[in-house]
């Protein structure tokens, strides 16, 4: 699937051609690097050694075993979404490519075959909360700890395909 995204930039319109395609094994290194750089940016409250350990799991399990789609621009991966059924295990965009519609395109791809999506977001990650809520995700639950049992509150969000503003 090819999606043309039009970005307004100081009075001019430029086109960024984003292709969404399934994950390939050769994407692993660059996507796990995108994951780490983006995580350091928005998950600064997590210890760096925890993020590095999680990166190894992303590379060895989550990317290859999930239903993963990759956003590619100029033949280079710039982001990905990892799904397990209707659950978004992760959506990460290269920090240099954020705020250009890539995350929305990845979610649109995920909604193509799903009536709804759910996900968890750290309560301390205001940027992600604003992003998901702008699309139409609503809070449906909270947990006082994350999946690893660390004391960081996680908000569960859900969005029906018909309500998604993409």
Automatic annotation (TrEMBL):
GO molecular function per UniProt: acyltransferase activity, transferring groups other than amino-acyl groups
SUPFAM superfamilies, alphabetized: Acyl-CoA N-acyltransferases (Nat)
Keyword presence, Transferase: yes
Highest taxon above the source species: Bacteria
Entry keyword annotation includes Transferase: yes
PROSITE patterns: GNAT
InterPro entries: Acyl_CoA_acyltransferase (IPR016181), GNAT_dom (IPR000182)
Residue runs in coiled coils: none
Keywords: Acyltransferase, Transferase
Signal peptide: none
Protein's name according to its UniProt entry: Uncharacterized protein
């Amino acid at each position: 699937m090819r999606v043309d995204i039009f970005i307004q930039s100081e009075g001019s319109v430029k086109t960024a051609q984003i292709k969404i395609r399934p994950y390939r094994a050769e994407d692993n290194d660059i996507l796990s690097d995108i994951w780490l750089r983006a995580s350091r940016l928005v998950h600064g409250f997590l210890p760096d050694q925890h993020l590095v350990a999680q990166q190894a799991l992303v590379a060895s399990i989550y990317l290859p075993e999930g239903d993963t789609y990759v956003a590619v621009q100029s033949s280079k991966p710039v982001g990905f979404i990892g799904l397990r059924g209707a659950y978004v295990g992760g959506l990460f965009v290269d920090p240099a490519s954020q705020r250009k519609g890539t995350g929305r395109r990845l979610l649109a791809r995920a909604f193509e075959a799903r009536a709804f999506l759910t996900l968890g977001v750290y309560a301390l990650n205001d940027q992600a909360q604003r992003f998901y809520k702008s699309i139409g995700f609503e809070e449906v639950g909270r947990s006082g700890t994350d999946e690893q049992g660390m004391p960081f509150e996680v908000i569960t969000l859900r969005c029906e395909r018909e309500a998604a503003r993409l």
